[in-house]
Amino acid sequence: MPALVLVGAQWGDEGKGKATDLLGGSVDYVVRYQGGNNAGHTVVIGDQKYALHLLPSGILSPNVVPVIGNGVVIDPGVLLSELAGLNERGIDTSKLLISGNAHLITPYHRTLDKVVERFLGKRKIGTTGRGIGPTYADKINRVGIRVQDIFDESILQQKVEAALQDKNQLLVKLYNRRAIPAELVVEEYLGYADKLRPFLADTTLVLDEALKANKVVLLEGGQGTLLDVDHGTYPFVTSSNPTAGGACTGAGIGPTKIDRVIGILKAYTTRVGSGPFPTELLDADGEALRRIGGERGVTTGRDRRCGWFDAVIARYATRVNGLTDFFLTKLDVLTGWEQIPVCVAYEIDGKRVEELPYNQSDFHHAKPIYENFPGWTEDLSKAQSFSDLPKNAQAYVKALEEMSGAPISAIGVGPGRYETIQINSFV
Ligand code: IMP
Questions:
Q1: What confidence tens digit (pLDDT) does each residue in 315-326 have?
Q2: Quick one: which of 2, 1, 9, 5 has its CA closest to 309?
Q3: Helix (H, G, I), strand (E, B) or coil at 68
Q4: Around Cβ 139, how many Cβ atoms within 10 Å?
Q5: What distance in angstroms lies between residue 58's CA and the mean position of ligand 1's atoms?
Q6: Closest of 261, 256, 227 to residue 242, by C-alpha
Q7: What is the Cα 315 distance to its own chain's centre?
């Protein structure tokens, strides 16, 4: 059985948690392949709401093996408290597997993330402040600390000292902060070793064996396509590759093993942090989308910026991820609008542009060209099939599908686990 990838098609927060959880019944492994606790997934099961940051959403399904792949950056304190929180609510987390090659977020990464943002002033990225960027920077600079390092005191000592050599200079001399003593970091991280040891695994081998045994492996991306460090709105991006290609490197699976790439697409658009957003609404409609859609960050508690659906972005997501399907989420949030505008193209310097401009300045100048679709007032939450949807909602979905370039195979009509219309099965 092949692997499937689930990727955010916009700027993250499209509702991946719900999609992964929905698939939980038909998959055997759920793997996170990039990002860290900058992500935030909300999963609603019955009257219980679970907010996950670092753990794969599959952790809530009893028959799934959740895996944290080598491409993820892990804050061990956060990981352990997330596990303890689930255990207290009766969720068994013992099946979790963690790659020894995943990098660790340390206190100096968190501190640097915050002070660098402060120094950037108006040019700030609006990061989550969780130390994600500095940890990936150390990985690429080859001075990172990996999960496997905490099992060897002398290696950990050497690596932390090496990493802190220049960072402490920066913290003290440039950012006017106190130096971080290497011993404190080493002591804290050695203390995590016994707790993390039971989860440690050669995850690429485990996944290869699983695929050979016909198991279904779901690779779950954090953030979204437009936050990808290569394909997003750089520099207003996260420091990893949420796009489908990142699933291969971040999980250690070859591209030939993947035959389905599902893009999670919200029926409107949101973004947190700084950066361009052509369809952003700074009026009462934007406020209404935020209120009705509950658009507040699970991780940071920040209000999300809201706007109408942008088909240019959806088409781009189809292209750079090779999407085979879309999961359209939060269609119910649009109930009650008389007209629903959809951005079908941009106007840039007086010209109509159908594709996402690769030039950053062009994207900053892009003005949305809208087409209006008639709205609906009926409650969608009880709809079980596409034909149960009001005619105008059906037409809206069909138009989005046509403009976005891949079939919409599932539609979210409410936050609950079963408030979903499945059109084509994913597995
Ligand atoms: P970082 O990932 O904390 O470095 O933040 C970089 C950018 O990505 C900021 O604009 C964040 O708001 C955004 N970001 C990071 N994680 C998420 C997410 O899970 N959803 C939406 N935006 C995110």
A1: 999 999 999 999
A2: 9
A3: strand
A4: 19
A5: 21
A6: 227
A7: 19
Catalytic residues: 13, 41
Q: Which residues line ligand 1 (CB under 6 A)?
A: 11-13, 38-40, 125-128, 130, 132-133, 222-223, 227, 236, 238-239, 272-273
State yes or no: pLDDT of 427 exceeds 90: no
Nearest CA to ligand 1 atom 21: 12
pLDDT on residue 1: 65
- Spacing, Cα 42 to ligand 1 middle (Å): 16
Cβ-based neighbours of 146, under 8 Å, separated by 6 or more: 100, 101, 102, 103, 104
Percent of the chain predicted with pLDDT > 70: 99
Query: Which of 57, 227, 277 maximizes ligand 1 atoms within 8 Å of its Cβ, making it the mutation to test the pocket?
Result: 227
Ligand 1, from 33, 41, 128, 225: best to mutate by most atoms within 8 Å of Cβ?
Answer: 128
In CATH terms, 103-197 corresponds, of 3.10.450.50, 2.40.70.10, 1.10.300.10, 3.40.50.720, to 1.10.300.10
What is residue 203's predicted lDDT score, i.e. its pLDDT? 98
Q: What is the pLDDT of residues 61-97, one digit of tens each?
A: 889 999 999 999 999 999 999 999 999 999 999 999 9
- Every domain range in the chain assigned CATH 3.90.170.10: 3-90+202-422
CATH 1.10.300.10 maps onto the chain at 103-197
Architecture per CATH, 3-90+202-422: Alpha-Beta Complex (3.90)
Contact 285, 311 (CB under 8 A): no
Residue-averaged pLDDT of the chain: 95
**Minimum CA distance residue for ligand 1 atom 9:** 127
At 243-271, the pLDDT tens digits run 999 999 999 999 999 999 999 999 999 99
Kindly give the residue spans of alpha helices, DSSP state H, lying in 142-298: 153-169, 182-196, 203-212, 244-251, 284-293
Angle subtended at Cα 162 by Cα 159 and Cα 163, rounded to the nearest 5 degrees = 85
**Best residue among 20, 37, 38 to mutate for probing ligand 1, ranked by most atoms within 8 Å of CB:** 38
Look at ligand 1, atom 16, and give the residue with the nearest C-alpha. Answer: 38
User: How far, in Å, from the CA of 46 to the mean position of ligand 1?
Assistant: 29
The rounded Å distance from CA 210 to ligand 1 centre is: 31
- Residue 37 C-alpha to ligand 1 middle, in angstroms? 10
304, 13 contact by CB (below 8 A): yes
